[in-house]
Design brief:
Elements lengths: L1 E6 L5 E7 L1 E5 L2 E6 L2 E6 L3 H8 L8 H8 L1 H25 L4 H27 L11 H7 L8 H29 L3 H29 L1 H21 L9
Antiparallel strand pairs: 1-2, 3-4, 4-5
Helix pairs in contact: 2-6, 3-4, 4-7, 6-7, 6-8, 7-8
Length: about 240
């Protein structure tokens, strides 16, 4: 949990705000609290990655290569959204008895599918085709982090944390595209999706903690982050993959 402390000119504390999540956008750090989105300036990009939990930032070369291969990025992105919707549907089907999960995942399914439709729209505008699905080495490697065995809720938490991690990395990649690509329409597009992914990341973590508790989930989440950093470091920097 993060707290933002506001002080007066004499350094005395005048307000303390509890913050749920933070995102770096256009040289401003946006915080989500119970009153909505607020922003503060002058915070570093490294701090943003810390707020998402990511241990290793994306290689900065990726966004430059991606911009030169935007058709491949859009195609891969479309399939990422399709898989995100399918993953949420799978959770609902596997755990229909968990009302809080069903209630939270149902609108996420609709939102992820709408993202798929929006990516297809961007492809069509540019005279591009969807093309075949590519092998997702990142997600395949993430699946190797998952613990085998354990109780039903423990397995559910593993799946929720994996989804949270994918959303966090996607949020970071969307931020890079928003900040650095030249296409103005896509800059706005990826800004909107970045904010959405940040919300999904928070939802998955919140659900996980409701099933196995703060202490267990925080410990396991740190283990996920360490292993994910190793995966990112070992993967080739490619401009035809979103992850």
């Amino acid at each position: 949990m993060l707290f933002i402390v506001e002080r007066d000119k004499n350094g005395l504390i005048i307000e303390i705000n509890q913050v749920e999540i933070a995102i770096w956008i256009n040289s401003k750090l946006w915080f989500l609290n119970m009153n909505g989105w607020l922003y503060l300036c002058g915070m570093s990009e490294k701090f943003t990655n810390h707020m998402l939990g990511l241990q290793l930032p994306t290689d900065p070369r990726w966004v430059n290569i991606a911009q030169m291969n935007i058709e491949d990025i859009l195609v891969d992105h479309a399939y990422c959204e399709q898989k995100a919707a399918s993953s949420c549907i799978s959770l609902i089907v596997q755990y229909p008895d968990k009302k809080d999960l069903v209630d939270m995942m149902t609108p996420v399914v609709a939102e992820e599918w709408s993202h798929f439709e929006r990516v297809i729209e961007q492809l069509n505008k540019r005279g591009m085709k969807l093309g075949k699905q590519r092998k997702d080495e990142y997600v395949i490697r993430l699946q190797g982090i998952l613990k085998k065995g354990g109780g039903r809720e423990e397995q559910l938490v593993e799946k929720l944390l994996m989804n949270a991690l994918i959303e966090a990395r996607s949020c970071e990649r969307f931020k890079m595209l928003h900040l650095h690509i030249e296409d103005e329409e896509l800059k706005k597009f990826y800004y909107e999706l970045m904010v959405s992914e940040a919300g999904h990341y928070k939802n998955f973590l919140s659900l996980a903690k409701s099933y196995m508790g703060e202490e267990y989930v925080s410990k396991r989440w740190k283990e996920f982050l360490v292993e994910e950093a190793k995966i990112i470091e070992s993967l080739e920097v490619r401009g035809d993959r979103m992850h």
